[in-house]
Design brief:
This protein is α/β, with parallel strands linked by helices. The chain folds into 2 domains: 190 residues, inorganic pyrophosphatase (n-terminal core); 119 residues, Diaminopimelate Epimerase, Chain A, domain 1. The protein has 12 helices and 11 strands. It has a 6-stranded mixed β-sheet with strand order 6-7-8-9-11-10, sandwiched between helices. Strands 2-1-3-4-5 form a 5-stranded parallel β-sheet. β8 and β9 form a beta hairpin. The structure holds manganese (II) ion (MN). The site of manganese (II) ion has 6 residues, from loops. The site of manganese (II) ion (MN) has 6 residues, from loops.
């Protein structure tokens, strides 16, 4: 922490980056940190790969988002990102900056940094940013609190996932005391469903299949289905839980065909399977009970390859 604070104090211009397909933790962490750094008088810019998804458009701090137009930053802070590949087109902003900080809670982080802070026990990167902002002596105002609360509820699934700790609740309680519209945030993040998401959910249910005595659920979306609606990135959020929530299921696999023959795989486990280990076979990563990877080939072939790896650890 002392090293991170030194690096931040020494920097004037600071870039903040996070992973592609940024979710509530990625964006909430980025905007809350940007707001805090701005309060400290830093020149802060947030670089994103995609526009902020509609379900997260209420997050304060979006005025710091900008297009990258070249230049080198004193410091680049990378959040919630385990691998350079996940920075997409913005990898150069990080690698070319004078100093680099990575703050993350993924178990399989392999980023290079001058200041590296990995805390696998944190439910969300937002929990770590909460501690950092406090350590920087910046007041956690309502705008910062909205971002951090969104980060924590996103990554804990509303305090439902096994990564939820007493500390998640203690931090959330402190954030709630700052007069944030928590009911509206929860409704927006978890309950409001776009038309395209409802269509993709219907397809996900239709395609659900069970293996290994019902311990493994597999579903998929084909590229043609995805293209038939104007699907946004957040429309895919949580579809892997359709299989995960079925009684008796330990592992849920969800494959989405991003381009013909190229699938993005999501894995979830309920109690005992380490899916990060399975994802790593396909050069992916993540957490013990939630991981992701990419795989190329036909649908049946991809399903078979992943099932083979799941069977080994079941
Ligand atoms: Mn996260």
């Amino acid at each position: 922490m002392k090293n991170l604070i030194d690096l931040i104090h020494k920097a004037d211009s600071i870039a903040v980056v996070t992973h592609t397909s940024a979710d509530g933790d990625a964006l909430g962490s980025s905007f809350s940190l940007a707001l805090a750094l701005d309060t400290m008088g830093k020149k802060v810019t947030v670089f994103l790969e995609e526009p902020v998804p509609k379900m997260l458009d209420f997050l304060p701090g979006q005025q710091f988002v900008s297009e990258y137009e070249g230049g080198t930053y004193d410091l680049c802070i990378c959040l919630d990102t385990s691998d350079m590949k996940r920075l997409g087109k913005r990898a150069g902003i990080y690698s070319n900056s004078k100093r680099r900080i990575t703050i993350d809670h993924h178990t399989t982080n392999n980023m290079q940094a001058d200041g590296l802070w990995i805390d696998e026990s944190a439910s969300a990167t937002g929990e770590m940013i909460y501690k950092l902002v406090k350590a920087l002596n910046v007041e956690i105002d309502r705008e910062i609190a909205i971002n951090l609360y969104t980060a924590i509820i996103t990554d804990t699934g509303g305090f439902r996932y096994s990564n939820t700790t007493p500390e998640s609740h203690i931090i959330a309680a402190d954030l709630l005391s700052r007069n944030i519209p928590s009911v509206d945030i929860i409704k927006k993040v978890f309950d409001t469903i776009s038309y395209s998401k409802m269509f993709l959910m219907k397809k996900t249910f239709q395609n659900l299949a069970l293996y290994f005595d019902g311990k493994v659920a597999v579903s998929h979306l084909l590229n043609e289905d995805i293209k038939s609606v104007d699907a946004q990135n957040d429309d895919f959020e949580g579809l892997v839980n359709v299989g995960r929530n079925l009684e008796g299921v330990e592992v849920s696999l969800f494959l989405r065909e991003e381009q013909p023959g190229v699938f993005k795989g999501s894995l979830r486990a309920n109690e005992y399977v380490d899916v990060a280990q399975i994802a790593s076979v396909f050069s992916g990563g993540g957490h013990k009970r939630a991981a992701g990877f990419s795989i190329e080939g036909g649908l049946d072939e991809c399903v078979r390859k992943v099932l083979t790896e799941i069977e080994k650890v079941l």
